[in-house]
User: Fold these one by one.
Assistant:
Number 1:
Amino acid sequence: MPHVIVDVNAIKFQNFFDRQVGEGQYFYEGIPYQRGWGHRQRGAGLSTVLSSIWKFIQPAVRNLGQDLSKESLAAGARALSSLSEGSNIKDVLKEQVKEGARNVLSKSSERYLRQKGSGKRKIIGRAYPHPNKRKTRFDALGPL
């Protein structure tokens, strides 16, 4: 195919612009509000960033909730036993809340101090197929 020289100045763009925006304007303005798939988003949005943060925080929140529920039951049992001995309600509740918070924080800190890793995952599996599970070969007439 031979090379063709194009003269851009000879092309009449006026009719093209008039059909797009109408008479009197010489540029395309577009519509003020785009609904639907007017443009494609490039990259990850705010929801992806927030979901990755939530995936990081979620195990800690779940474990904290479990520790908090267990400790609240234990603190309630301790408070009831102290109240049955005739102690003041206000003092018992203050003491049990402080002790329960201390226990939950110590359990959570111990759990997260034990966590450590090398950052590499082991590759588990065989590099070759199992000898008893050979694939049967087929051609147009049937198995070979």
Note: The mean pLDDT is 78.
Number 2:
Amino acid sequence: MINAVGREIPEEILKETGKQAFQGAYAFDGYEYRKGAPKVRPENDPQRSKLVEDIHEALVKCGIRDGMTLSFHHHFREGDYVLNMVMEEVHKMGVRDITICASSLGKANDPIVPYIEDGTVTISRVNGSITYPCSVMLVAPMNPCPCGYFGPPTRVCPCSSKSVSRYLSRVSGPLLDRIDLCVEMDPISFNELHGTGQGESSAQLRAQVLAARAVQTQRFAALGYTGVHCNAQLAAGQVRQVCRLTPGAQQVLRSAYTRLGLSARSHDRLLRVARTIADLAGTELIEQEALLEALQYRMQDKLEVR
């Protein structure tokens, strides 16, 4: 049998599965489909085209607004340029707080990195446009391998080393280089789950963060920095002035810079994280322990080790 797009479908397969060959986008099979709660019938209007002029019109018809999630699937190995075009249009439209749900972010998606780092959002209207400051926090969960069981000894991972490497390489280097904190979450053991010990409460952690922020505010005011509210906002020249290290930490940084092949951007991001760790510990200089902890949070190096 020949289907609506001209492909031959073996009759024995249709009989075996009880299926019908594809009859076209507007073919009506007489069935009702349940979506959520109400029963709906598929649209059957050949006179109404589903095509739109451009991505902007598609986003408008989808009801794009602040805080929405945009899902992208069926990517090619190195990423999908459609994601880039959509995010470029979202940026132009001034839509904020968008969550990107993508099956992968490959090398082809590097152009979206400036939208993460830009720090501004432009609202365009008929009478003109205006640009507002916009702080972006990128949070991205990731499995260690295709099956998700690589690493911890609680489950056997059937993935080969080649498939693990291929899976991890789906995230591009430039994007990884901009992730400051990477924390591996191991499964919780039974004893930990039923233990009586208690960790720090949210109130205690909040107090530590506020104390560190107060130290940073005083430091920035003393140095005459304007528009800087936390260590993450320090410019390259300010990093050199604020992130002062002990001799031991200086030696560790020199060794890491050479052995890991850090870029200038990676070097500065590492120092900002180490400065924050030192502020939480209440130390004036960045000590060796703070720098080593900051190095452990680098995701790029963890993936290369594997």
Note: The chain has three domains: 1-50, 55-133, 211-305.
Number 3:
Amino acid sequence: MVVEGGVDVEELGRATWTFLHTLAATHSAAPSPAEVKRIERFMRDFSEIYPCAPCAESFRGIMKRVPVDASTGPKFAQWMCKVHNEVNKEIGKPLFNCEEVSKSWGVCESCARHEDSLIGFKGLLKRMRQAGRKDSTANKERSSN
């Protein structure tokens, strides 16, 4: 039963898998250790806050059996397909051919068009943080004199 204005579990599941597979498809081919940890943390946190309690509990169990592999973009995409198939087994849905995962899910095209702007923005933020650290170091030196 869906409360008026609510979302049913099928709709929630489709939207969730679209998001997760797109996340996996855009994960760096050679992520830094920090990026790998961030994805692992996100997936753990995601499984704790997912708005369908039985789904979240099931997903946590699957993640214990099949630990997150975000060591490369392709491995994360394959991991995502594997865990999606584990969910589908539990709920009696057909399994996906993980060899063809890139044909089913990929990069958000409208998002990719803005990637250069995002890269420029991230560079600006990094330079601002570095400048802030330099200012902070200079201020500490001044105050200690």
Note: Residues 38 and 70 are 9 Å apart (CA to CA).
Number 4:
Amino acid sequence: MAESSSKEPKQEAAKARYDDFALYYATNGENGAKAARDAGYAKNSAAQTARHLLSIPYVQEQIMLNRQELRSQADVTADELRQKFRRNDMLAIARKDLGASNRALELLGKTAGLLSDKVIHEDAKTEEIKEAERAEVEAEAQARVIQITRATA
């Protein structure tokens, strides 16, 4: 029995570091090496450690739970973001600030899935839903281009 109690602190310490890694990973843009360093793992082998940790089911589950919690704590939904970007675009056009308008449109496009910094593989049903959103955003973007053209003319 003394043997199992001597292993428990090590297991608890490992679990705590796993939890730390999972939290850092979920909150830092999914940079595994940085999450490993922030969780106290060796700097020189952080990338290798991260790959190993990401293969552990417990760590994967903790990352998923952290993501869910972060999403539930978010103050805005995707629809609210789109509304704010549309409002920012309109304000930028009123100020004749094309840079700000373009940035608002870029962010609007990204939230609708039109623009992405990553390659995303989706199934056909998801693609149909995204296509409807894309059509809506494209129509809005065309209307904005006309407004910008008129505002700057």
Note: The chain has two domains: 8-73, 78-152.
